[in-house]
Design brief:
The chain is mostly helical. The chain contains two helices and two strands. The chain has one domain. Helix content is about 55%, strand content about 10%. This is Superfamily I DNA and RNA helicases. InterPro entries: TadE-like_dom.
Length: about 100
């Protein structure tokens, strides 16, 4: 009798913990991927669109086994003018 009452609660905790762990791993992987993409893009002084496309592919591959289709990557170039103003050079490519 007691097992019949507690078994659904135990199963709920088990599957809830499994989902939480998957979400936590996906969040950590996404943060690490964003940092890696930013690091790779900023290593060179000039970056071409082909370079950014290659870096985006690296980011997409780093997200495996999690799906990367709902995610968006964006690179934006900023320039500080002589008067201290910051200007957005280009919105940058997206993937």
């Amino acid at each position: 009798m007691e097992f019949a009452l507690i078994a659904p609660v135990i199963l709920l905790f088990y599957f809830g913990l499994a989902e939480f762990c998957q979400a936590f791993m996906a969040q950590k992987r996404m943060g690490r991927t964003a940092a890696t993409v930013a690091d790779l893009v900023t290593q060179n002084e000039t970056v071409t669109v082909a370079d950014v496309a290659d870096v985006f592919e690296v980011g997409r591959l780093m997200m495996r086994p999690f799906p990367s289709t709902p995610l968006e990557q964006r690179v934006t170039a900023l320039t500080r003018e002589a008067d201290g103003q910051v200007r957005v050079d280009c919105p940058g490519p997206r993937a």
